[in-house]
Design a protein that fits this description.
The chain is mainly alpha-helical. Helix content is about 80%, strand content about 5%.
Length: about 230
Amino acid sequence: MRIAIRIMSVVFAIILCFVFLLSSIRYVAFNEKLYRKLQIKHEIAPFVLMTQEELDDITHEIIKYMKGDRKNLVIYDIQDGVKREIFNDREKTHMVDVLNLFTVSEWVLVIMICLLAIIVIAGFLMDMDTMRSIFLKTVMITMVITVLLFIMLIFYMIVDFHSFWMLFHKILFTNDLYLLDPYTDLLVNIMSLEFFVSISYYVSLCFGLLFLGMFATIGGVKLMRKVIKNGQES
């Protein structure tokens, strides 16, 4: 029974790390204020010959689309009195793939959270005393090891972000629609490689804060249990 609960604790910790990662990605990906901050930092609006307000409107619609609150990315602007679409077919098709990823990530996140609850409940039903004695310690150790692996990935991003970004797309996408042309495709210019470097930094930061928050919570629980135990003994 002790071995089974230890294995469940390890699985719990690994799933929790991925819950933190997915939550961080979704939080950053849907954060319009952060997009605006990074767009100003990287001077994207003047580069694409727009005002920041025009870029804000486009960003708002892109995020709505990624959330599933907009049916398509058919967006128009007017140049010299002529109404035209700002995204071409290749860009829109690629964003369909992106939307599918976010839809899947939402379901995966829900499933993983349910699994976390099931593991905890099952563990306490199996052996409450063993859960109390080894669960938190095993979770903390496993999370540290898992996060160390994520840190190695972060170092890879720092050393060669372009290579990481290409590998990331090759793993997640079954086509090459993500290979956009900066001369013809607006999307790759308003979401440049430098922009995604900053986005990845904020995802890593959010993940780290969630991890530290979890550690602080676990540490607080262990300290409280120790205080209660000492109080009962005295």
